[in-house]
Specification:
The protein has 231 residues and is α/β, with parallel strands linked by helices. It has 6 helices and 13 strands.
Length: 231
């Protein structure tokens, strides 16, 4: 099974279903919601394929990447939602304050109710760890933990303070969120963005990621190689 993509939410986020072993998968950036008329599209895909989600990974906390978490949690209440600590305030019961700042900058405050009172994080994505190192997977089957251990968490602040990438060196796969796009990178003009920091993060990726690694970004074209992205 290959990484599966569904473009979800009002800004067409690349939401990914990432295979682990057997029917186990993890889901990246669920954005499907009532506003964009694609509510539960990820849940439907999982159930159609008889897949078992073991985690929701949020590459960062911007409204367009987290808007499906509430509905997802309603269907899978035991599946942990994971985010970097620096972006934890984008979700949870106090999420409205920080989300409002970004939405106001984009003149999109009508979307605020969708990202208000989002589920709280169940764990945190710490730089340098693998997914298998996280406490929420301590009781997972060994085969699942082995598959999770292939995915390394890389902190890439800049687009937001808590942006992360996930890198599988063995399979040469990089899930980059909004840190890196095809020959471009994430915007830094929204609250808490820092372009100098983002450029440092991308430079650090060049020391870690193989040039032939396939990149799965948060929007638009995906499956290009890291070495051809132009940065």
């Amino acid at each position: 099974m290959k990484i599966d993509l569904i473009a979800t939410g009002p800004l067409y986020v690349n939401s990914y279903i990432v295979p682990l072993c057997g029917n186990d998968v993890f889901v990246v950036d669920p954005a499907d919601c009532l506003y964009s008329e694609d509510r539960f599209s990820l849940v439907k895909r999982l159930k159609e394929k008889n897949l078992n989600p073991v985690a929701v990974i949020l590459t960062h906390g911007h409204f367009d990447h987290v808007s499906g978490t509430k509905d997802f949690k309603s269907e899978y209440p035991d599946v942990p939602i994971l985010i970097h600590r620096a972006d934890a305030a984008f979700i949870g019961p106090m999420s409205e304050d920080l989300q409002e700042r970004s939405l106001s900058e984009m003149s999109f405050l009508e979307f605020l109710p969708t990202v208000t009172n989002l589920p709280s994080p169940d764990g945190f994505l710490d730089d340098g760890k693998t997914l298998a190192d996280l406490d929420c997977f301590s009781s997972a089957a060994q085969s699942t933990r082995d598959a999770l251990s292939k995915w390394k968490i890389i902190s890439t602040p800049g687009h937001t303070p808590g942006c992360v990438c996930l890198y599988n060196a063995e399979q040469k796969l990089l899930i980059s969120g909004d840190t890196l796009f095809y020959r471009s990178y994430g915007r830094t003009d929204l609250p808490l963005g820092d372009e100098a920091q983002l450029r440092k993060s991308i430079a650090a990726l060049h020391k870690i990621v193989h040039p032939d690694a396939l990149v799965y970004p948060g929007h638009e074209y995906y499956g290009f190689t890291f070495g051809e992205n132009g940065f």
